[in-house]
């Protein structure tokens, strides 16, 4: 299996009006994400993981006892994370489908309560990482946060929504105001139809 950098599902400047500039996307997609792909391909070559799926590589190389994951895991997991991240955003405002609204309300009590938990998870993730809305094996929804490139696949969860809180995702547009970036992400960028499709 050879990793490939997917094209963005919208023009590179399409999110500018909603708070994510072309410059951010050029650095984030064209440089950072591409580096995960290039490094991942180099690290996978001639290993037992070379022809496995992304999910198999992620679960097979994740070390639950170590914060500093190995190179194969870090690059493949970050590739998967970013492939999802681009799909989770839209250049047009997307209304939350009723089935997702109900699932979130059933699990959190209200949409506002979910947003509050999501903001808090992202704002309190120390250093680099992600915050997530996940579906548990039981069917319930939960907000989580993970360090560095770790993602919900490692814990048998389904990632419905993820927000990248590495500095390269927001520093050009929001400087050190991560909470403002998170609120803008939820209010202006999320493709709720894509999130609902993962239920």
Q: In terms of structural class, how would the helical and strand content be classed?
A: mainly alpha
Mean pLDDT: 97
Number of domains: 2
So what's the CATH class of the largest domain?
Alpha Beta
- Provide the helix percentage: 40-55%
Q: What is the terminal separation in angstroms?
A: 27 Å
Number of helices: 8
Identify the overall geometry: globular
Poorly predicted tracts of residues: none
Give a verbal description of the structure.
The chain is mainly alpha-helical and 199 residues long. The protein folds into two domains: 21-87, Helix Hairpins, CATH 1.10.287; 98-197, minor pseudopilin epsh fold (3-Layer(bab) Sandwich). Helices cover 48% and strands 11% of the residues. The protein is built from eight helices and three strands. It has a three-stranded antiparallel beta sheet with strand order 2-1-3, with helices on both faces. It is globular and about 50 Å long. The model has no long low-confidence stretch (mean pLDDT 97).
